[in-house]
Amino acid sequence: MNFYVMTLFPEMIENGMHTSITGRAITKGLLSLTTVNIRDYSETGNGRIDDYPYGGGAGMVMQAEPVYRAYEALKEKIGSSPRLVYLTPQGKVFHQEMAEEFAKEEELVFLCGHYEGIDERVLEEIVTDCVSIGDYVLTGGELPAMVMMDAVSRMVPGVLSNQESGQFESFQDGLLEYPQYSRPGVWRGKEVPEILLSGHHAKVERWRRDQSILRTLHSRPDLLETAEFDKQDRKFLRALLSDEYEVRITEEEKSFLAKLLAF
Ligand code: ADE
């Protein structure tokens, strides 16, 4: 996977991406990273790349020409027209399936905006995907680009070790991860759930699945609407509803579950 990032802050991207697992993958040659400083393509040659917005309003707008020139130079280097992701709060919200889809590309270009955005005309010419990482506004597209590259990198064969790759499987099942525990068995008086010490593999798996369902119900009930449940899962969900289970759920969660089970 070859990542390219068009940005005003290449050092931010370089520093972030050369750290931890992505850094290791770059060193191993499984990923490559090329940053392009849009300021190097300033029309005036003095590094200025922004101007006031037509129609008035606060802030500055990144001009079309420096962005276009930076893109043309990159396209020539790559030798084809790559998929180009513009990071913006106005884009489609990023999620796991999107990461999987982007991971199929050979080359991915990210365009990071700053100030009040980029002149729309150049975006119309070069952008293939507008992506947001969530409903909040950041100071620029660099962190969102790194978030996306991190999530995409995990899907690239060899980037994660075997041990690392199993880690988030339950999320890919459409449910949130179950809680994890490590030594010591008792920490400041708090014990590890007994079942995890039992050595009974099937029971541990069942407990983990139940915990995943419970966590998803608490934090992201919307995910339960599309998750697939087997007979055992349904048994657990019914137990939750009927108060058989030692963990109590709220009345709101109960009425949500009752509707879910009715289908
Ligand atoms: N740029 C500023 N905020 C952003 C967000 N939430 N997602 C993507 N790009 C952004």
How is this structure best summarized?
The chain is of the alpha/beta class and 263 residues long. The chain is 43% helix and 16% strand.
Question: What is the topology?
Answer:
Blueprint: E1 2-7, H1 10-17, H2 20-28, E2 32-37, E3 50-51, E4 61-62, H3 64-78, E5 83-93, H4 96-102, E6 107-112, H5 120-126, E7 129-132, H6 142-153, H7 162-165, H8 169-172, E8 186-187, E9 190-191, H9 201-219, H10 221-224, H11 231-241, H12 251-262
Parallel strand pairs: 1-2, 1-6, 5-6, 5-7
Antiparallel strand pairs: 3-4, 8-9
Tell me the β content: 15-25%
Shape: elongated
**Side-by-side strand order of the widest sheet:** 2-1-6-5-7
Structure annotation, total helices: 12
* Largest pleated sheet: 5 strands, parallel
Order of helices and strands: EHHEEEHEHEHEHHHEEHHHH
Number of E-type strands:
9
Low-confidence stretches: none
Small molecules (ligands, ions, cofactors) in the structure: adenine
How much helix, percentage-wise, in residues? 40-55%
N-C termini distance: 42 Å
